[in-house]
């Protein structure tokens, strides 16, 4: 351990639910995206699932909203070391979209891509079983554009760069294909509990 | 609707510069060798990092402080110095009120102290000096941009480079003494005699975009999220293509 002389850190009580190396950002919700926030109206938003699926499909705003509603209430963790507790997102479970397209048994991974062109890769197993959402509401209100509105991917058990803002689609693959930050040195999976921040962690 | 999706921009193109995954994964000891005040609220911290693999202007690193009970705090900091092979690098930190890491640097740190760093990180915001660059920063957001300006000077590059830097007033302008003809400071609250006061606006950008170099600028925007939103929207409205705007938000 390399103790830093004179550094005590903020007074703290161990906060259950805080992954290693993270701090509680409280009411703050920092914005970290490398691109210009797009002006994307709900009427122009679409979400497509294709690749290794039996029935590729694109949903528009109204079609996506016609699916059974599902909410997430819990915590989120950003690789830049803030975490946010007890957030509430509303939208639709990704399972509802995946069930409709019928993934091939050969599909193991997905690339999520945004309307801006941003990409991020995920093992399919991180997107199924009620652990991922397409979210368009935050705290009961429409999701703000700078946080990915009108709709973003939400995969709260992984670092938040995996939860692609302005989500446009998922392509299912039989192999892993690094996305934007993963090509820029970030970890392939990004599990906050194992501190998978950068490639090699 | 079943047509294949094509993104409206080419943002998905890979980062321009390959990042060394090994360097990014390895914590190294950085020894503080010098502290230089820049403004009443910002100072530059110089470190010896003998095994540093080198960096490109615009890249950042992750810095970690450890308390004696094992508690750690880690934050990202842009690298202020130009690439250099003498085993040193510099960071410039704002003193954020109540800030855990910047607070330690501004009130406790002394030459000889050791911290841990890993990096360099992210090739996306890096500028190797190859394309005309229009740099727009506010507050400590000027830090990675200054690395580019210093690199441009140190190498005697003639590729066009312009810096627009926004500060509340002259006393808060980081690196004030170092700017040359490439820089236009914009003051939002107070300015020297004869210099207008006001936030970055379309009229600052219009002449630069109108007389831009052949092939256009590569724009780099850095600062708080509020500034990054404002500046990047101004750029888009002024005709800068979205896929040629790179943004580094400090959170
Ligand atoms: C890519 C990148 C590059 C960056 N480069 C630079 C740079 O070059 N220079 C620079 O100065 N900054 C830079 N930053 C910002 C930097 O990472 C830190 O966010 C900044 O230094 C503040 O950290 P801190 O530990 O001092 O403050 P923090 O402790 O994180 O506090 C930030 C604010 O939140 C409040 N706060 C948070 N938690 C608590 C709490 N529990 N109790 C009370 N108050 C709290 C504080 O009062 C303060 O106002 C960069 C950020 C990124 C993402």
TrEMBL record, chain A:
Q: Organism's domain of life? A: Bacteria
The Oxidoreductase molybdopterin-binding domain covers: 37-181
Q: Which residue ranges are recorded for the region named Disordered?
A: 1-24
Q: Which Gene3D superfamilies match?
A: Oxidoreductase, molybdopterin-binding domain
InterPro entries named among the record's database cross-references: OxRdtase_Mopterin-bd_dom, OxRdtase_Mopterin-bd_sf
Name used for this protein in its record: DMSO/TMAO reductase YedYZ molybdopterin-dependent catalytic subunit
Q: Which organism is it from?
A: Streptomyces rishiriensis
UniProtKB/TrEMBL annotation, chain B:
- Ranges where the FAD-binding FR-type domain occurs: 25-127
> What InterPro entries does UniProt report for this protein, alphabetically?
Cbr1-like_FAD-bd_dom, FAD-bd_FR_type, FNR_nucleotide-bd, MRET, Riboflavin_synthase-like_b-brl
Q: Which UniProt keywords apply?
A: 2Fe-2S, Iron, Iron-sulfur, Metal-binding
- Cofactor(s) it depends on: FAD
Which CDD domains does the entry link to? FNR_iron_sulfur_binding_3
Q: Is ATP-binding tagged as a keyword?
A: no
The protein, known as: Ferredoxin-NADP reductase
